Amino acid sequence: MTGSSVAYWLGENPDFDGTVLVVEPDWTYASAQTTRAQNSIRSQFTNPLNIEMSMFGMDFIEHFHGNVEVDGESPQLNFRGTGYLFLADDDEAYERLRAESVDQLAAGAEVAMMRPAELAERFPYFDTSQVTGGRLGGMREGSFDGWAFFQGIRTRALHRGAVYVKDAVVGIDVAAGRARTVRLASGRTVDAGWVVNAAGCHARDVAAMVGLSLPVEPRARTSFVFDCRRPIDAIVPLTITPAGVHFRREQHHYMCGAVPDQDDAVAVDDLVARVDEFEELIWPVLARYVPQFDEVRVVTSWGGQYDWNTLDHNLVIGPSAELENFLFANGFSGHGLQQGPAAGRAISELITYGAFRTIDLSPLGYHRIASGSPIRETALI
Ligand SMILES: Cc1cc2nc3c(=O)[nH]c(=O)nc-3n(C[C@H](O)[C@H](O)[C@H](O)COP(=O)(O)OP(=O)(O)OC[C@H]3O[C@@H](n4cnc5c(N)ncnc54)[C@H](O)[C@@H]3O)c2cc1C
Questions:
Q1: Half-sphere exposure of 297 (CA within 13 A, CB side)
Q2: Which of 167, 205, 309, 325 is most buried by a 10 A CB count?
Q3: Is the CATH code 3.50.50.60 the one for domain 2-77+145-215+311-371?
Q4: Could you tell me which CATH number the domain at 218-307 has?
Q5: Domain ranges of the chain
């Protein structure tokens, strides 16, 4: 998503007069996070920059056809605006959600606080005796076809002239404070004016090629799709319980996941689904909040990884003081699909104009990594 979004925005910008090469070893994208995501978008973050980036992602989705069409055709996104529902199970948690909602509203997000009686009216399938309330987002939050989203952007980037090569970056030569030559596994070398690190969970290895450290590590996340014997006949927003278990409707089924109890770094090629999580961690929580979920059957599951920024769980974007033409776009920590359009546009601005032009993402720069100064985001899923 990130690499293709950068290529997309450069291709769309008449002020950019260079050429774009996207290096990707796996054209099936089978092990990329992009194809293992749960494909949702929200404005309920606690950091205003995350809110702004995701709201731009939603604008992009709203105008998706025009944004990506090639010869009048575009993939069907099938966006479903259900909102996200963050639940609280005590007064302190409710108050925290409420305080966050003030900033979210100020940033233009659509959110509403609800007490149990209102939740019961809106979502009659809930056992609201378990909660003190919740915060519900509007119709500009929801889920979509992530593959269509990515393919639309990639196809348009190709149409505008980006070249994709099936290869892997194995080294980057640096001289006089600039990244100069990218070395590929095939033996080919490419001289580059700019190099963008869009390597997802491999980003730390690519940063190491230019001698920079990046605190981004793979963290295992398993997704489950399940069937319910007594289906819910009402809207099911993407619901986040206080224990961190989340679920939503996925067409005729439901999709869910959780933060594992042991959340350590895993090997970058470890994409094994942790299937025991469903019975041990997730199902008891699901059934507590939604009694109908006491009779469910897992239809499928898959493993994936977050590119987890251990400093502050936020994107790292832009150059370092050491190398002005090596740009990071890494560490999305679980929200990089929806922020792909904003991150790609931001990188294209740095390349074309030398500065951010739309959303000023400089607070999310590498300098905070170098100085160990986190920018907090607490609404993590
Ligand atoms: C379970 C799960 C659920 C998620 N749900 C959501 C969600 O609901 N909403 C949301 O916004 N985000 C979600 N995300 C996060 C989102 O999927 C990622 O943030 C986003 O896809 C990151 O895109 P990327 O292009 O940066 O990384 P990736 O998609 O991982 O792509 C990186 C690419 O770099 C390539 N690469 C690696 N090393 C090299 C190299 N040396 N040379 C050349 N190429 C290389 C890889 O092959 C890969 O294709 C979820 C993630 C997971 C795992």
A1: 6
A2: 309
A3: yes
A4: 3.30.9.10
A5: 2-77+145-215+311-371, 84-137, 218-307
Residues 175-215 pLDDT 10s: 999 999 999 999 999 999 999 999 999 999 999 999 999 99
Which residue is closest in CA terms to ligand 1's atom 51?
37
CA 34 to ligand 1 centroid distance, Å: 4
Q: Which ligand 1 atom is at minimum distance from the Cα of 339? A: 11
State pLDDT tens for residues 295-336: 999 999 999 999 999 999 999 999 999 999 999 999 999 999
Q: Residue 291 Cα, ligand 1 centroid: separation in angstroms? A: 34
CA of residue 336 to ligand 1 center, whole Å: 7
Q: Which of 33, 61, 274 to mutate to test the pocket of ligand 1 (most atoms within 8 A of CB)?
A: 33
Q: For 104-149, write each residue's pLDDT tens digit.
A: 999 999 999 999 999 999 999 999 998 999 999 999 999 999 999 9
Q: pTM for the whole thing?
A: 0.97
